[in-house]
Each structure stands twice: as structure tokens, then as C-alpha cells.
Amino acid sequence: MNKFLEKYIDPEEIVNFLKSEIHLKEVWRKILLQKVIQRAANDRAIIVTAEEIETEANRQRREKRLEKAADTITWLTNQLITPHDWETGIRNHLLAKKLAEALFAKEVENFFIQNRLEFEQVILYQMILPYEKLAQELYYQIEEDEVSFYEAAHLYDTDDKRRQQCGFEGIIYRFALSPDIASVLFNTPPKQLIGPLKTEQGYHLLIVEELIPAELTTQRYQEILDHMFQQWLNSELEHMLRE
Asked: Could you tell me which residues come within 8 angstroms of residue 227 by beta carbon, excluding any fewer than 6 positions away?
């Protein structure tokens, strides 16, 4: 810990503060997960070399525009950590990454193929309305070009954020949608007005801007790998706590 802060903050105070902010369990869990990772890596003879740590440290320096060694030291001091602390964090991150690859890299493609439909996406606009009569009336007004979908969403949507964005919901995976709504969205050509569809939230009017086919991109590969690894970590942690 920074020597200046050591004069004013006792380590016990940090623990007590984390307890008072209800963050101690989160920190405790992260420490245990790191122990799970270290034990599994040891069992599989997975290590992180000094060269790998240096490469990642240099990448972070470039990302943070720390061109000189003095700039790096200043940044670390401001973060209240030492170069050793930083390198330990890098090592832990790389070790988790290498372990995830060792455990699940060969399974990602099979998982994607088996669940391909779930990884289809839509660029979605929608508004959710509280009353069926209002939803039906707006549907006909939009169809007759009396008002645009985006104007109606801006005026009537029940969600503040979506209303400000004129109904823009974002890029949504099929698996994030209810099966009933997903079935309609992925079987309707883009740009067509859909609805009203009733759910517990209200009455939906929707427009699919674009259908995005499932593709195993680098980003999606990493998402699946991270998901598999996280599930494995949770399972291993539960097993550790039962020992």
C-alpha cells in the first residue's frame, strides 16, 4: 500500500469498509476464484512466462499512452500499486485466459454449431405501450403514414431511455428474447411493422432494422469461451467450498 496512506488507513479499516459497503463477499469470492484458477493451472502445468507478462505490460502502456518508464511509475503510484502488484495482476489475467483456452477452446465451435440459431441477432426498434387500444391505434396511424414509428415511440413508449432513443433497443441476440417474440421477429422481413404483441410488460410494436445471421466471429468466440469458463469456475468454487 502507498506509504502515505499507510499512515492514515489500517488494513483492518479497509476490511471493515468493504463490510459496511456490502462488498466484502464480492472480494472474497474473487480471491477464491483465483485460487481455483491457480490450482487448476498447476494441475495442468500451465504457466505464464516473464516474456508474456512483459508483452502484455507493453500493450497496456501503449493503450494508456505511457511512453516513458517515469510515466508508468507515476500512473502506478496514482493507482496505489507497485510494479510488482501490476505484474501480479497481469499474470493472473493471462493465467485465467490460458486456462480457459486449455479447457474449452476445442468445445467452442461445437457449442456454436449446436446453438447456432440462438446466436442470430436483430437490430431492433420497439415501443411498449400500456394499453391495447393505444397500441392498435398507433399501429394503424403508422401504417397510414400519419405518424412515423420513431415519433410515436418518442411520445408514447413506457421506457424513458428507449423513448429518448425513438424506440431504438439495440442489437439483440435471439436468446435474449422471449421465444414467442423471437419467432415473430426472425420470421418477418426487415422494415415491416410488427404487433401489437402482448407480454407482461405491455403491448409491443416492433420494427426489425436488420437480421444478422449467426457467425462465429472473434468476439463471439470469446463470449462463448468466457461463458463456458465462468460456468466451470462457479462449479469448481462450489466443489471447493464443499471440501
From this structure: none
